Amino acid sequence: FIIKPMLSNIFSTLTIATNSMYLSFNYRDLSTASLRYLSSRQALADIANFRTEIAKKRGLSKNKWVTFGNSYGGSLAVWSRIKYPNLFAAAVSSSAPIQAKLNFYEYNEVIGRILSTHNSECSKAVKEAFAILGQMLKRPKYNSKVEKDFMLCEPIKINSSKDTAFLTENMIHIIYFFVHKQINKLMRGEPDELNIDNLCDNMTDASLGSPYDRFTKIVHLFLKSKHKDCLSASYSDEVEGLSNSSLDNLHIKYERQWFYQCCTEFGFFKTTDSKNQLFSGTPLRYFLQICSDVFGPEFSRDLVARGVKTTNKYYGGFNVNGSKIIFSNGSNDPWHRLGITKDISEDLPAVFIKGNTVLNSQRPTNRMKSIHAL
User: Where do the coiled-coil regions begin and end (predicted)?
Assistant: First the structure.
């Protein structure tokens, strides 16, 4: 754990930060067998035990404890208050998904709305670019062109739906990159030319060619900003990386652990299974295949779906059975679609902030302009 002096000074409290990403390395590896104790329920039990022991050591047993958290940490903050009301007096969450969902297509719907609101012609061009790319990926004769245009690291395998879906997912993440960069610029005052303005300037510039041609430039800008020479298009390489259970594996930072929880508890798969979005090419079955390929054939659709259903039954999902919990979300944060955005009761209030996004509703700053708390 880490004691946060800055936050302690702001709130005149002892403020402690914990990490719940299964990085203590109590096992020799991160094999599927070793990950069996990685769950939100175990995380809550650990948090409760941590609170009890710290209270004893520091003489704080009579003090009131409040949980804070952003994103998944916000979910744990909410659930800590619900499941251990005797230990935690209240909870404050930001951008916390409290409803598990197998097919989280709404994420991409929000990304599309942000782009459309910013520049409708830009969102149309992005949608057309992905439509053209999707059609080209269905025809092997275009593989070499796609490889060259997007500077792919390896050739696309002929008739490999996994490779084409993985490549498409990477392309979608590039759009995420530009959208989130814009939000960082507005909310944190971070100067960065790679934002929605830059994206849309290029995507609406007819002199660059078709929307497909314009998008190739966007990918090139992204690769340059990341100091990369090429874009990965190998599904097997990605699965190999996620499957590597060695503690020396770079994926241990969070990817393998978090994906395991998605496959066992939450879903949260950002699919293109919706007509109300800009993208196509990454259906639910693609993500379920990754679960199976990474963690074993027993991770079937039924197993993953049961895990999501069990999570919602255990915590209550949108039906919050608790008190003294504040839910804050922003309209430009896709995760708000799985959070509480309206007051449930007097002691379960929601703060829905127009134009805001994850991590900012708890951030002390004087740069938060044009924010309206409803």
Answer: none
